[in-house]
Amino acid sequence: MNFGSGSHSPPPLRHPVPTHPAYIPEPPVTPGSPDGYQRFSSSPQPPQQHQQQEQHYSQSVPAYSHYQPPLPPNPNVGFVPQPQARQPGVDFSAWGVDDATARLGMQLGNSAVAAGQEYVQKNLGGFFPLAGLKHRFNVNNLYVMRKLQLVVFPWRHKPWSRKVVRSEQGVAEWYPPREDVNSPDLYIPIMAIVTYILVAAFHSGLDQRFRPQVLGELASASFAVVLVDFCFVYLGCYFLNIQGSSQALDIIAYSGYKFVGVISTILAGYVLGRTLWLWTIVFLYFFLANAFFLLRSLRSLVLLDPANSGTATISPASRRRRITFLFLEAVLQILYMGILVR
Predict the structure, then answer these.
(1) CB 175 within 8 Å of CB 136
(2) Are 77 and 40 spatial neighbours (Cβ–Cβ below 8 Å)?
(3) Deepest in the core among 47, 151, 309, 325, taking most CB within 10 A?
(4) Sign of the four-CA dihedral 135, 139, 144, 147
(5) Cα 254 to Cα 302: distance, rounded to the nearest angstrom
(6) Residue 191: how many CA atoms within 13 Å on its side-chain side?
(7) For 32-74, what is the HEC assignment?
(8) What is d(CA 11, CA 300) in angstroms, rounded to the nearest whole number?
(9) 164 phi, psi to nearest 5 deg
């Protein structure tokens, strides 16, 4: 179609100028993850695709041609960098030692400790095995209460035999003390020796005889009595050809139970005062209780049960010698306890 020169041309098209909305909410910011990256609900789009969507959006909404769509969340906004966790250990650089030298020193130290443990186990393991020490400290509160009751009142206790369990290799092993009240332990003897030293020192203070040297004298007397008792029983077992596993630890344990009666005698002296005959009756009772306890307890050590130990049957003559040795050990307790309560 041909339009004449005199005709009016149509006015130019003008797009309306949009106004921005009063408030555009900011998109929620996802908190940064512990690994240091920003997590989106959907993966961010590449810039080219985002520009195409923006152009399409401005064309589809002519009234808001100048409206800028919300930008994707900025991963740096609202993100607080987490401090990196430091490696555990000692900072040797503060002492002027570099890491290589420090690691070398630690390795040498570990090697020295391992060598020391191996030396102790090799030279003293046969006499004081570490596994036996752990076994005799395996106690609980119920065992301690029952054992103290057994040492003080042993008259009606039954049975006296120790419990035995068979390992996978068929070897007989004793139950730990917390599972068998007849099993000897080292916790009560050690605590009894320490308590005796403190109680005896307190008693000397009441009599105006305390000196700092009293603690050393009491400790020396305690260890001397235990050592003499231990040597007597150990040598007796050697000459009577009595063999057993962890025999030395059992003898030390039984040598320390006498301190329970000694402590009870000293405490009874506080209550009874200076009444000699009453104190003598108390001392004789605890001596007899300790002697009876040793007679029944050491029987499992001196008169071994062939079914549990795997040894041959004891001859009648050897059995009589062992029983005599048991009675002699029980009678000697009055000498040991008399030295301690003097």
Answers:
(1) no
(2) no
(3) 151
(4) negative
(5) 13
(6) 8
(7) CCCCCCCCCCCCCCCHHHHHHHHHHHHHHCHHHCCCCCCCCCC
(8) 124
(9) -125, 140
Cβ-count burial of 265 within 10 angstroms (0-12 exposed, 13-18 middle, 19+ buried)? buried
Radius of gyration over alpha carbons of the chain, in Å?
Answer: 44
Q: pLDDT tens for residues 152-197?
A: 999 999 889 888 887 777 677 889 999 999 999 999 999 999 999 9
Query: Is the pLDDT reported for residue 25 higher than 90?
Result: no
C-alpha span between 78 and 74 (Å, rounded): 9
Q: Output the CA angle 216-217-219, nearest 5 degrees.
A: 65
Structure tokens at 33: 């993850």
pTM: 0.63
At 167, list the tokens: 């390992």
Q: Which residue has the tokens 């020796």?
A: 193
Q: At what angle do helices 333-340 and 276-297 cross, to 10 degrees?
A: 130
pLDDT 10s digits, 300-318: 888 875 555 555 577 888 8
Count of residues in the chain? 342
Nearest to 337 by CA among 267, 280, 286: 286
CA–CA separation, 264 and 285 (whole Å):
10
Asked if residues 283 and 265 have their Cβ atoms less than 8 Å apart, the reply is yes
User: What are the start-end ranges of the E strands in the chain?
Assistant: 164-166, 172-174
Q: How far is CA 224 from the centre of its chain?
A: 32
Neighbours of 188 (CB within 10 A): 21
Assign 249 to helix, strand or coil. Answer: helix
**Does residue 65 carry a pLDDT above 50?**
no
d(CA 251, CA 335): 18
d(CA 149, CA 143): 10
Conformational region of residue 19, where left means phi above 0, alpha means psi within -120 to 50, and beta covers everything else: beta
Residue 325 has pLDDT above 70, yes or no: yes
